[in-house]
Write a structure and sequence with these properties.
mainly alpha; 317 residues; 2 domains
């Protein structure tokens, strides 16, 4: 009887009113169906990543590259976990209410508003974890006056984009089992085609389709990658220091001279200056396109989700 009354209310409500009805429903589910569990799970994932790679992030180029890659992937995983099952787990209810007058667009917009709140809370938790782990986020910002704000906006966009992508998948598939099967493949695609660690060759064009690529670009720019020292060259020379040439060890002698003259830091900075990436130059024109690309992905995922769910009446189950 209660469900019938709810359906009647939805049938005679406008789109905006339905957004409010479903938004309140999702808030109740957060409390009573333990949807709040995504917050501690996301916090654990972020903590594991930050405490492993955070000490060198924004300190050296290598640490920044590895740290931003790991943190971006952790944020994507958290976003996926937020909403990968939210629609398919109540697909039968959605189908019944759609036939009773529910507007799919209102339902999806309500989900997006609710998920935005979850992602914002996860962003705050991530920033807190970075603070506890003493991640050295640059003080001055590039787009805003504060580096931590630029950093937080990027984290929020990455988590939210992954969240809405998962919401789209949840609208496309029919069962939670299928959704959870698809999720690892989505994450693997983000890992491989980010362009951060793997040479993609002919598939290089695919990196612009990944959230991870734009997230890494934005975080590396905000973290001032090009201004940091590179330690790889120094470590490589150290590993070869005992090689003899005509009875002498020229590399060992050169390294000793650099250290004795307190020139090691200068050498590391010089190495970094010769390993700059134009995409990571600390200018707003490198951050805005990354943010815009992620926002466009969010819009695309939302549109596909609405279109897919509008076809729910064709289900033959």
């Amino acid at each position: 009887m209660t469900k019938e009354i709810a359906s009647d209310n939805i049938e005679y409500s406008g789109r905006l009113s339905q957004v409010g009805i479903y938004f309140k429903k999702f808030l109740r589910m957060f409390v009573y169906q333990n949807d709040w569990k995504v917050l501690p799970i996301g916090a654990i994932i972020a903590a594991l990543v930050v405490f492993v790679v955070g000490s060198n992030m924004f300190v050296t180029q290598e640490g920044t590259k590895m740290g931003t890659f790991a943190l971006t992937c952790a944020c994507i995983w958290s976003g996926f976990f937020n909403s990968i099952q939210v629609v398919c787990r109540e697909r039968d209810i959605v189908k019944r209410e759609h036939r009773s007058g529910m507007h799919v667009s209102s339902y999806i917009v309500a989900h997006m508003l609710y998920q935005m709140i979850l992602c914002f809370l996860q962003t705050l938790v991530t920033l807190l974890i970075c603070y506890i782990a003493r991640v050295q986020i640059p003080g001055p910002g590039i787009v805003t006056p504060w580096g931590v704000l630029d950093f937080g906006i990027t984290i929020l966009l990455v988590i939210y984009a992954a969240d809405i992508m998962a919401l789209m998948v949840s609208c496309l598939v029919k069962t939670t089992t299928t959704a959870m099967t698809v999720m690892p493949f989505l994450l693997i695609f983000q890992l491989i085609f980010s362009g951060g660690f793997f040479e993609l060759g002919a598939a290089d064009f695919l990196k612009v389709t990944t959230i991870s690529h734009w997230g890494m670009d934005s975080l590396s720019t905000i973290g001032r990658y090009n201004e940091q020292p590179m330690v790889t060259l120094w470590n490589t020379l150290v590993s070869f220091k005992d090689i003899e040439v005509e009875g002498t060890k020229p590399l060992l002698y050169a390294l000793q001279q650099i250290e004795q003259n307190d020139m090691r830091d200068e050498f590391l900075l010089w190495s970094g200056q010769n390993n700059m990436n134009p995409s990571y130059e600390a200018v707003a024109s490198n951050v805005w396109p990354a943010w815009l690309a992620i926002v466009l992905m969010i819009v695309l995922f939302a549109v596909v989700a609405i279109i897919a769910l509008k076809l729910i009446d064709r289900d033959k189950r």
